[in-house]
Amino acid sequence: xxxxxLTVTHKQAWHSATNxxxxxxCRSGNLQPAQFNRWLEQDYLFGIEFTRFFAATLxxxxxxxxxxxxxxxxxxxAELCWFHTTAKERNLSLHNALxxxxxxxxxxxxxxxxxxxxxxxxxxxxxxxxxxxxxREPMASPYDQLFxxxxxxxxxxxxxxxxxxxxxxxxxxxxxTQSETEAEFLIMCRHEKAFWQMAYEAVA
Length: 204
Fold this sequence. Notes:
EC number: 3.5.99.2
Distance between the termini: 41 Å
CATH architecture: Up-down Bundle
Protein name: Aminopyrimidine aminohydrolase
Structural class: mainly alpha
Number of strands: 0
Keywords: Hydrolase, Thiamine biosynthesis
InterPro entries: Haem_Oase-like_multi-hlx, TenA_E, Thiaminase-2/PQQC, Thiamine_Salvage_TenA
Pathway: Cofactor biosynthesis; thiamine diphosphate biosynthesis
Shape: globular
Helix content: over 70%
């Protein structure tokens, strides 16, 4: 089993995670500012927990994977700075409480922290890959600028490298760990779909 096989075997779940109406509205320019703002506020809070999950993955990783993983820290730092800058420009608060979709996604990451490395590496790739795939089609202004990093070649290359190390980890994993990884991948897809949807429900 490898990462691409997961996306093919679970094509519908992957499609739902990477082609949500939230993203379609970003591409058409129909997304309402309040919907984007709520997503941004919540995604910042998720980003905090994602950073801790990244640290857990790095801690479990073999040394020959360090270079690729450590290269991602620059992107995480830039993303967290981007949240602060964009929130200030849009007069938003980054201190609101997590909504249910975000809270459940964060609990999912926390629960994964002590799982086998192949599980962590695959979920790390999966989360980053959803953004890379979601942003591969042009978005309307101003969302084209706001999602520019996820659409960049630099980010695409990084996600490809994450895929390579996740595949390497899965190749040597036991059947039990591979099955566990597949199950967690499906859960991750459901959380991604719910997180996009949260932007609409929160401002309805």
